[in-house]
Amino acid sequence: MSELAVDTCDCDVLVVGGGLVGLAASMFLAQQGLRVWLVERHASTSSHPKLRGVSARTMELYRSAGIEEAVRAAGENHFGVAIGDSLSGEYERVHLPLTLARQNRLSPTTHYACDQDRMEPILLQRSIELGALLFYGCTAVDIEQHDSTVTADVVWSSSHVGTPAPAAPPSRITARYLVAADGAKGTIRASLGIGRHGRPIPGKGLSVLFDADLESALRGRRISAMVAPAEGALLFTRSDARDHNWFALTPRADLDSIDPTAVATEAIPMIRSVVGVADLDVAVHSAMTWSTGAFVADHYRAGRIFLVGDAAHLMPPYGGFGGNTGIADAHNLAWKLAAVCSGDAEDTLLDTYQSERQPITEFTLKHVMLRAGDGIGEFFRQFDQFDPNPITLGFRYPMATAEGFDPELPVEDPAQPSGQPGTRAPHIPLKGAISSTLDLLDPGAFTFLTPDASCYASTLRAHPVSGVRLREIRRQEIADHNTWDRIFPAPATAGLLIRPDGVICWRAQSTHPDPALVVHTARARALEPKT
């Protein structure tokens, strides 16, 4: 792109859609130093919880972006799940698949519970702090692609809000690239002629925020979620007294015909039944119906436009994989757009967004559908056998430099990290203020992680490689020597080159007459991959 074309753009990337994934995309893109604008048709962030579960991998990404503590403060500090006929009756506790001690061996953080209506304002605020400009109450229409730009006309509602507010809202936005985070019902995917494969899931789901005194039903017991299999229902209690409780029904055929204007009224007897108090005083704050399915877009890219989140894939709600997968999409794409916009990489790097993300999404969806086949009750009864970490932490991307990659099984056991290219950089616990090797990674550059005694460390210390941050580790700093020795079996010749998204792209396993040159070459190849 010419300098003139760059100068005439309002922003580097326009994000269409300000839900969970769109806001995460704006944050990750702004973290990369890009000029980011976001437009969202609603007047504000979501007032409905929608998603609660935050995977350990998503928490790692939030940690890297500087919001982990804010998420923990906004979320639930307990995650007790129970199965029974009603909240007031007897129920069985669901055992979590991982103990905290085992989780700590896999990651410097943990999975967490933070509802979407609490999460979105955190993502919004961090996006603003990083320089993004967000517009609410407006719709992007007439999106057109040109040789070096994308344009979108903007239709504003009377309640539009700019954050921070510009002098005058634009009627047309010109960007170098566009990220479509407009959801499953958005129009951008279809307008690009991109189909999707998969199958629908019959029926509609129901989600209600309500106020009620649940103490007589709980009788001093504390849980964060109640699963009532007979109703296909979930009841989430929220520990903050200022918040509403949350009732949800998984898709049921009998909800297809429900009158949208009568959802709140219809929901009250359902809530009373699941709580187990026939005369419970229920005040509905808001109610909505929703549909789901099991679909993956045939393509994630069309020219200068990229699909993320539900625009790229739709999953049933079991396990919270849909939102977490979408956040991983956005993170994978952000550093690549930054590399291309800065001139560090050619546009072909962006093709790897689909080649890397689509296989793991297909695998995730297949896994979720197998688990969800017998309904929400059976899903939670088997919860202690269901470890999501091989998918969320053990993912593998196809890379030419990787050994033994199987496209039918694009995951590995994160408790036994291989250190192979295409896998997540390993979490090796450290002693001292920095508690993990993951905290040594630079989200704005490549990182070369190596033992301080290696030939690479001494050379790169004297001859730094542009775009690569050297991180040396002394053996006495290591708190987990088993993982360390697996990743670096020959410390004198070992090293990992790690992309800005925390994925290994090259592994040093032998000496080289010019270590700086071979690291420079490995970085260049990562920016010009063969797809």
Number of helices: 16
**CATH class membership of the largest domain:** Alpha Beta
What percent of residues adopt helix (DSSP H or I)?
25-40%
CATH hierarchy: architecture of the largest domain: 3-Layer(bba) Sandwich
Examine the coordinates and then state which fold CATH places here, giving the name of the CATH topology of the largest domain: FAD/NAD(P)-binding domain
Number of domains: 3
Largest sheet: 7 strands, mixed
Order of strands across the main sheet: 5-4-12-13-14-11-15
The whole-number mean of residue pLDDT values reads 89
- Oligomerization: single chain
The stretches of 5 or more residues where confidence is low (pLDDT under 50) are none
The portion of residues forming beta strands comes to 15-25%
Radius of gyration over all CA atoms, rounded? 24 Å
The first-to-last residue Cα distance is 23 Å
- Helix vs. strand class: alpha+beta
Features:
16 helices, single chain, FAD/NAD(P)-binding domain, alpha+beta, 7-stranded mixed β-sheet, globular, 531 residues, 23 strands, Glutaredoxin, 5-stranded mixed β-barrel, D-Amino Acid Oxidase, Chain A, domain 2, 3 domains
Provide a concise account of the structure shown.
By secondary structure, the chain is of the alpha+beta class. It has 3 domains: 3-75 and 114-196 and 294-346, FAD/NAD(P)-binding domain (3-Layer(bba) Sandwich); 203-291, D-Amino Acid Oxidase, subunit A, domain 2 (D-Amino Acid Oxidase, Chain A, domain 2, 2-Layer Sandwich), CATH 3.30.9; 412-527, Glutaredoxin (3-Layer(aba) Sandwich).
Question: How do the helices and strands line up, and which of them pair or pack?
Answer:
Blueprint: H1 3-7, E1 11-16, H2 20-31, E2 36-40, E3 53-54, H3 56-65, H4 68-74, E4 81-84, E5 91-94, H5 100-106, E6 112-113, H6 116-129, E7 133-145, E8 150-163, E9 172-180, H7 188-191, E10 196-200, E11 204-211, H8 215-218, E12 225-228, E13 233-236, E14 245-252, H9 263-275, E15 283-290, E16 293-297, E17 301-302, E18 305-307, E19 313-314, H10 321-341, H11 352-372, H12 375-381, H13 389-392, E20 446-451, H14 455-462, E21 468-473, H15 481-487, E22 495-498, E23 504-508, H16 515-527
Parallel strand pairs: 1-2, 1-9, 2-7, 4-12, 9-18, 20-21
Antiparallel strand pairs: 3-6, 4-5, 7-8, 8-9, 10-16, 11-14, 11-15, 12-13, 13-14, 16-19, 17-18, 20-22, 22-23
Helix pairs in contact: 2-6, 2-10, 10-11
